[in-house]
Structure formats: structure tokens, C-alpha cells
Specification:
- The protein is of the alpha/beta class.
- The protein is built from ten helices and 15 strands.
- The chain is elongated and about 75 Å long.
- The two termini are 32 Å apart.
- Bound molecules: pyridoxal-5'-phosphate.
């Protein structure tokens, strides 16, 4: 019996990476593979790199350390501003980090000097989504500070949209990023290696836009792993949408009424949903709940409906009785997958890629 867990199909992840590398390549844009959703799983990073990603990025230093320790020698990028308390670890493991605070740059510079390394800096610019980034009018001064600090190299600039406020990458904000890149180059007199335009939410813009301007890098996680763009969660043509699965084990399956009996107030997780009485049904419970995943984001197999969830029980309507020990496999949403990858209660199973023919 297999037990509960997350399944990752490395062949599908490799296929998705390869298709996206070639899509971006048509615009001379490189792909940086983002591994935070898989907590820096080295096999996933290797699948991305094997398909042509130029670098691996993660928001957490622990994940980058895991990748480096596994033997990955390619560029590792920290895409969340470093914590002051972690600058020594950051310069030891990450080749490049994303930055928005001069005080952090000073600390990185000192740490890099101590470690006798050069550390690359990409300055993040805020272009409307209101998460991380310096405002355009403040870019010049942080760029100048980077140039003045020993052991730091300005690798480029970047922006991140969609994640916090759902702001769509478009012709306007991407043109602003290109303009800013040119202003930085003019004022500093040296070219920027990287102009990183954003994440999976940039794919729509890219396919509409014949000229991506100065953008020469995108950081993709969700599109590679889920085969979907995140703005409307539509499948990207040609990509696998089933590379990731959350598997759960049946612990009960019985004929029960479809409607609860008795006076109802709130459930463990908020207001109780209205229920239509459809008579008796096959109700099957799998050992999975809010503590392991986001039940709302799960897609059940054909014929099975998710009726409800508590911390540790996911209640399903199944077409027939199932047996305790049977497995049910769900396609998770981004949030549900991240939680499942982080749950100590779930194992992880990797399917090896088919060897190239
Ligand atoms: C998470 C993240 C990404 C990747 O986003 P996806 O939607 O998974 O492609 C890119 N850049 C930054 C700064 C991020 O935090």
C-alpha cells in the first residue's frame, strides 16, 4: 500500500521546461527556473536545468543551500530580499540576490568581503503590484550605492507583478522596465546583464508582444510545474497540467444520507454550506485535510466530488463503495500543492524522466 503523498513527474516537468525554454528563446529571453513550490527539490531543479534553464531561483536560502549541497553548480538566485539575519548564508550559497534596501546591500557587501566572494545584485523595481521593489524615482540612488559597495556586482534589474495585487504585466509596465534599464546603463556607463521581466504571469504579455524590449529573462515556477498561467489559471497549450499529484488514502466508505441531520451552526472551518437532500450516497473519506493541503484547490478524479473537509478528513462522494487502503489522486492548485509539499505527514514520490530517445 502506497500511503499518502505528493507525486512529481520529472519527465513532465522536463517537457514543460523544454517547451518554455524554446518559447522564451524565440524572444531571446532566458528561463530562470523557480523551485520554491517544491522547496528546492534538487531533482526538479536538475530537470529544469537539463531542459535549458540558465539558473535556478528560490525565495528561501534553505532551499538554495539544499540545491548547492546536492551538487548543482549553475547560478543560484535568491528572489526574495535577503533577511539581515541571513546575509552570511546568502553570499556563501547564492550567486545573485534580489534587493530593495541599501542597508541590506551594505550587510551583503560586508559579508561578501568576509567570505572573499563577489555577490551579484538584481535591484527590484515596483511597477504597480505593490509587493517588493524600489519606486522608479529611487532606482538611481540604490544602483549608485551598489556600484560603490565593495564585493558587489550589479547584475541587473527586475520587477514582479501579479503575485500580490493581480496587476497584469502589459505593454506599459514592461516598457517602463525597459526604459529604466536604459537609464541605468546610460548613467552608469555599463550594460546590464539581466533585465528580468517577471514570472509565469508574463507569458500572456510575451505572446501578445512581438518586441519584449530589454527584457531578457523570466522567472518561471507555476507554468513549469502546473502547465498553467496564473492570471486566469488557463492551461498553456502544449504543457502538461498533471505533473503534480496529491495522493490520499481511503479510511472509510459507507452509504450515508447526503443531507446532515440536526440544527446546524458553523463548521470547523467557517459557515456551513447549504446542502440539497439527494437521498443516500456513497460517502468516502480519505485521510487528508486542511492541515495537509488546500481542499478548495483540489481537482478530484472524474466521477468523484469533494463534499467537504476538516483538518484531517476529506469527504468525497464516490460512484461506488471504495475499500480502506485504496488511493485517490487529486490535481492540486498552487496553494494546496505548496502546503502538501510542506506537510510532514505526506511523503514524496518522484517519477524519473523517460530517458531521451
Ligand atoms: C515566486 C516568484 C516567481 C515565480 O512565480 P511563478 O508564478 O511561480 O512563475 C518569480 N519571481 C519572484 C520574485 C517570485 O517570488
Amino acid at each position: 500500500m502506497t500511503g499518502p503523498g505528493v507525486e512529481l513527474d520529472l519527465g513532465k516537468i522536463r517537457d514543460n521546461s523544454a517547451l518554455l525554454v524554446s518559447l522564451l528563446g524565440r524572444f531571446e529571453i532566458s528561463l530562470t527556473g523557480v523551485t520554491k513550490a517544491v522547496r528546492g527539490l534538487p531533482e526538479v531543479a536538475a530537470a529544469m536545468l537539463g531542459a535549458g534553464a540558465v539558473a535556478v531561483a528560490d525565495s528561501r536560502i534553505e532551499n538554495l543551500e539544499r540545491l548547492r549541497t546536492s551538487g548543482i553548480s549553475e547560478r543560484l538566485v535568491l528572489i526574495r530580499s535577503p533577511m539581515m539575519s541571513q546575509v552570511d548564508r546568502v553570499v556563501r550559497t547564492a550567486d545573485v540576490s534580489y534587493n530593495t534596501e541599501v542597508s541590506v546591500l551594505r550587510a551583503l557587501s560586508a559579508a561578501a568581503r568576509n567570505a572573499a566572494v563577489r555577490h551579484g545584485v538584481i535591484v527590484m523595481v515596483e511597477l504597480g503590484d505593490l509587493r517588493d521593489g524600489v519606486r522608479p524615482q529611487d532606482l538611481r540612488s540604490i544602483v549608485d550605492a551598489t556600484f560603490e559597495l565593495p564585493n558587489l556586482t550589479l547584475v541587473g534589474i527586475g520587477t514582479n507583478l501579479a503575485c500580490r495585487s493581480g496587476v497584469v504585466p502589459d505593454e506599459d509596465n514592461m516598457a517602463t522596465l525597459s526604459d529604466l534599464a536604459e537609464q541605468v546603463e546610460t548613467s552608469s556607463g555599463s550594460p546590464l546583464e539581466v533585465v528580468s521581466g517577471g514570472n509565469s504571469a508574463n507569458l500572456d504579455w510575451l505572446q501578445r508582444e512581438p518586441d519584449p524590449g530589454r527584457v531578457n529573462d523570466l522567472r518561471l515556477g507555476e507554468a513549469i510545474l502546473f502547465g498553467r498561467e496564473p492570471l486566469r489559471r488557463r492551461p498553456v497549450p502544449g504543457l502538461h497540467t498533471d505533473a503534480l499529484v496529491v495522493r490520499a488514502e481511503v479510511i472509510e466508505s459507507k452509504r450515508k444520507p447526503s443531507a446532515p441531520k440536526g440544527h446546524r451552526e458553523e463548521t470547523a472551518f467557517g459557515a456551513s454550506a447549504p446542502v440539497v437532500d439527494r437521498g443516500e450516497i456513497w460517502q468516502t473519506i480519505v485521510a487528508l485535510g486542511h492541515q495537509d493541503t488546500d481542499p478548495d484547490g483540489l481537482e478530484a478524479p472524474a466521477g468523484i466530488t469533494i463534499l467537504g473537509a476538516s483538518s484531517d478528513h476529506l469527504v468525497l462522494e464516490t460512484p461506488k463503495q471504495m475499500a480502506p487502503g485504496d488511493s485517490v489522486r487529486f490535481l492540486p492548485g498552487y496553494g494546496g500543492f505548496v502546503r502538501a509539499m510542506t506537510s510532514p505527514y505526506l511523503g514524496q514520490t518522484l517519477t524519473a524522466p523517460r530517458s531521451p530517445s
